[in-house]
């Protein structure tokens, strides 16, 4: 019952990765273009390949998919097909985290890369009704050279769909403050700051993300639960957390779902949004994450609609677009509750 409500609910997603969104269907299309790839073509074998086993296996799958994105046409296909999977889930708006550095380093020219994602974005909006915006993120493990390059692509080249600047990859051994100059450069041209922080390290990383990188939202922010002063700060300054429950279990950032700090965030008045991170690779999708959150927070339909409204409010849409999407959510809830 709640599942069918969620399935039809208009939603926005704020924390979801580009390559990490390649579903088995999309991977099959990509590997058909590159028959030398080790990724199995047979649908059953592909499904098995995609079944999440552990974090090391997730990295294997992720890298295999990275290897399938070799030219601008792969980028365009991947991006458009992600939007198709989103449309099926009634996702109306998504801020997709894209890592241009990985593709450019692999030989796709920066201009062709940007053209490919923009072409997919415009087509997806027109043909599928899914509005996409980009967050270009620094792959932290690739160091300052990747930060320099990501800032150059974001700021010196840029593109119409780009709204924010991020930082992903491992947190341990990758202190946030070293990326300050690149975030400064991005923020100076109006890009919003949305680094990952506090997923696998403690609350200090989240403080660093706020104070050094000017974070307006926090990717994950899981360890905020260990610092009451930080929770208070996030609530007072209305800094939303991009919570991805299943991902946190898969990566072992959280041991068991029942221990997920989502309930503590809500109790502390911190704005939360629900997201899927790398959905097919963690065996999930946004609808499943909403169902998980509803269970953790003990929500009914109205409560779940509230989560959808939170995501719109925390998005970088303009006020008019926010109002329209919020009205669509409210209308859907009203039509659901007035059913005979
Ligand atoms: Zn992420």
TrEMBL record:
One of its GO terms (molecular function) is metal ion binding. It comes from the Bacteria. NCBIfam families: aden_deam, PRK09358.3-1. Residues 10-331 form the Adenosine deaminase domain. It comes from Streptomyces smaragdinus. Pfam families: A_deaminase (PF00962). This is Aminodeoxyfutalosine deaminase. It is an enzyme of class 3 (hydrolase). The keyword Zinc applies.
